[in-house]
């Protein structure tokens, strides 16, 4: 077999390259589907958002607000009703940003070295190296970007993006009611004497009264908050001690709690919905960052927090019509249609250059934003 007809070379073929890429991407032995934070809390929207001629995709997030009925009016016989307030449908809008991972650029001399390695080590070695060194890294970059935005949105109600290189700044702001930004009740949670259980019961009761939501709720609590505040809290320790007493036997003094102990104690408390521990980290250059805002917990309807809005990149629309004949390209969808691999061959002076890029036009959006409450636990009312 010649290198020109090898799989690793045909990946860049404008005709059959996309099919080969799909086969590589669908092979879990080559490209792993690593667990991702965003996929736990958001689903991909049912269809892509249309784009305009400039490549911008404007979305509208819809939610019909649930309100609580008040007392009836007393009337005289045959009297008509007074008109009710029509809250209508709550929406917020935004533009889906474009993203690109660090690209794989291979010069002619690097390509020559790859060919020599291919002849020595064989086709399978070349495929594994390409999958691990290029495809996996770029897919991880896309997943981390989505997860970082999802965590920012859930814990702050907006996305301000300062990661990567290039454009930075505000991406979107959800229309969360001001009353849904709450604080600890009386004592901040970093105080071991704070009545965290009592506060959670009060916060949840106030939430239901204010929003009128009577369905299942969930608390999203960062692991570091749970470990630092809950497991050292006097009220939580006493709750676990009471749980042991109900089971019978001697009840020792509780000097420390494990995570499992804390969760078990809280799960038995009336008026406190299910607790989900939040764990997420991303890599930004040489740094490890977290999208979730420090000392914030979230109370919201159980289930998914929202959807990933996405659109087709302008590259995929423009190049087939107006791309240079000196450049060959193919496009391959991945991540359920959220991202697109673009393989291309360019001229670079007297030689060719091979590029593999991962493009994405996507953003997380809350779709229950009027019922999404964010509590700052280190600030007290």
Q: How would you sum up this structure, described in words?
A:
By secondary structure, this protein is of the alpha+beta class. The protein has two domains: 3-65 and 91-173 and 305-365, putative capsid protein of prophage fold, CATH 3.15.30; 178-303 and 369-380, hypothetical protein PF0899 domain (hypothetical protein PF0899 fold), CATH 3.30.2320.10. Helices cover 32% and strands 28% of the residues. It contains ten helices and 18 strands. The protein has helices spanning 7-10, 17-25, 37-41, 108-121, 123-156, 196-211, 223-230, 234-247, 259-267, 314-322; strands spanning 42-44, 57-64, 89-96, 98-100, 104-106, 158-161, 169-173, 181-184, 217-222, 274-278, 282-284, 287-289, 296-301, 306-310, 328-334, 339-348, 351-366, 373-380. The strands form five sheets. Strands 1, 4, 5, 14, 15, 16 and 17 form a seven-stranded mixed sheet that branches.
């Amino acid at each position: 077999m010649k290198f020109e007809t090898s799989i690793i070379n045909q990946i860049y073929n404008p005709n059959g390259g996309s099919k080969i890429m799909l086969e590589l991407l669908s092979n879990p032995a080559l490209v792993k589907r690593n667990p991702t934070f965003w996929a736990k809390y958001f689903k991909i929207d049912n269809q892509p958002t249309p784009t305009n001629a400039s490549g911008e995709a404007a979305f509208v997030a819809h939610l019909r607000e649930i309100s609580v009925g008040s007392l009836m009016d007393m009337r005289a016989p045959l009297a008509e009703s007074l008109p009710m307030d029509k809250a209508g449908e709550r929406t917020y809008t935004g533009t889906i940003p474009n993203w690109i991972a660090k690209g794989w650029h291979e010069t002619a001399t690097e390509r020559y070295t790859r060919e020599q390695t291919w002849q020595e080590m064989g086709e399978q070695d070349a495929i594994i190296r390409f999958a691990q060194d290029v495809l996996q890294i770029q897919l991880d970059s896309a997943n981390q970007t989505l997860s970082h935005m999802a965590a920012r949105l859930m814990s702050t109600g907006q996305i301000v993006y300062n990661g990567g290189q290039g454009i930075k700044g505000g991406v979107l702001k959800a229309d969360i009611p001001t009353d849904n930004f709450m604080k600890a009740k009386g004592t901040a949670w970093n105080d071991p004497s704070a009545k965290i259980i009592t506060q959670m019961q009060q916060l949840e009761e106030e939430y239901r009264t204010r929003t009128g939501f009577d369905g299942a709720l969930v608390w999203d609590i960062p692991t570091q908050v749970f470990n630092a505040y809950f497991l050292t809290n006097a009220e939580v320790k006493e709750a676990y001690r009471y749980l042991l007493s109900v089971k019978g036997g001697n009840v020792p003094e509780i000097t420390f709690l494990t995570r499992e102990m804390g969760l078990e104690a809280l799960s038995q408390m009336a008026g406190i919905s299910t607790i989900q521990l939040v764990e997420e980290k991303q890599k930004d250059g040489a740094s490890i960052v977290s999208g979730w805002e420090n000392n914030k917990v979230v109370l919201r309807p159980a289930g998914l927090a929202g959807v990933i809005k996405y659109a087709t990149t302008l590259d995929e629309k423009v190049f087939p019509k107006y791309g240079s004949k000196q450049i060959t390209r193919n496009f391959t969808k991945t991540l359920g249609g959220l991202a697109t691999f673009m393989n291309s061959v360019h001229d670079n002076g007297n030689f060719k250059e091979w590029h593999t890029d991962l493009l994405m036009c996507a953003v997380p959006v809350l779709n229950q934003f009027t019922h999404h409450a964010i509590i700052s636990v280190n600030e007290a009312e």
